[in-house]
Amino acid sequence: MAAWKITNKFMCNLDLVCGRYAISKLPEELIEEFEISAGHTGKVLPADWNISPTKEIYIIRNNQEEKRELVNLSWGLIAPWSKTSDEAIKSQSSAINARTETVDSKPTFKNAFKYHRCLIPATGYYEWATELGKYPSKQPFYIHNKNNKTLAFAGIYSTWRDENGVAKQSAALITRPAVDILEKIHHRMPTFLPQDRWDHWLDNQENDVDEIKALLQFNNEAAGLIADPVSTKVNATRNNGPELIQPIELGEPQTLF
Question: For residue 171, is pLDDT > 90?
């Protein structure tokens, strides 16, 4: 198999799990699938097969009446201490993911984890091979449910006000150590929340950190997932379209030994 030339300009940071993902479902589909009773606020986002940090995304959260709502905000949690919009955007790129191990203690994330939790819906996400094994280094994979059911990433969100007092909301997804087939590609993975935990996770009245962290621990985290090798076209943020998730054939297994 020929070596792929990959430049840092277009690559997601390979140290960050899930630096790109896809969502191609309409709000009506998400409202039905996630039993959203308060509807959708915000514009309808176009189908996006290459979502990158700072882009506008959908999240699902409880409103003040504890009813589920679908809202739009940007991906990457804005650091609470940001003083300008430029600082806010810069901070987002390094805060797209929070680790299960430290989400309750890191200054950027801990308040959101305690008080502002959400679900981030995804048709699938991309990961680049970084582990020793049969896959070529930096080979992208598209990971999704075999039954096409939407993935529900555990997430957190927050509100920040810019220098003009304008409120800007942002979110981060929560990652954990990879398991099963996924650990052969990358050592971390998003935390997928099963449906029977959605109510408790979204409950605005649940502020006990130990109770909340316990919701992130369960078995069969990667059940039903498929990891398809895909073209390196996804490496460039300018590329978009359903062709990015089409599986490709890999050559003979490659190892370092």
Answer: yes
Q: What is the mean pLDDT of the chain?
A: 89
Distance between CA atoms of 199 and 98, rounded to whole angstroms?
A: 21
Indicate if 66 belongs to the active site: no
Per-residue pLDDT reduced to its tens digit, 177-189 = 999 989 889 999 9
Q: Tell me the domain boundaries of the chain.
A: 20-245
Calculate the dihedral angle through the C-alpha atoms of 179, 185, 187, 193, rounding to the nearest 10 degrees: -50
Please name which of 234, 226, 249 lies closest in space to residue 128, comparing C-alpha atoms. Answer: 234
User: To 5 degrees, how large is the angle CA 253–CA 151–CA 231?
Assistant: 35
> Among residues 12, 69, 118, 127, which one is catalytic?
127
Query: Among residues 18, 69, 118, 221, which one is catalytic?
Result: 18
The yes-or-no verdict on residue 107 having pLDDT over 60 is: yes
101 is annotated as an active-site residue: no
Examine the pLDDT at 250 and tell me if it is beyond 90: no
Q: Which CATH number fits domain 20-245: 3.40.109.10, 3.40.1440.10, 3.90.1680.10, 3.30.950.10?
A: 3.90.1680.10
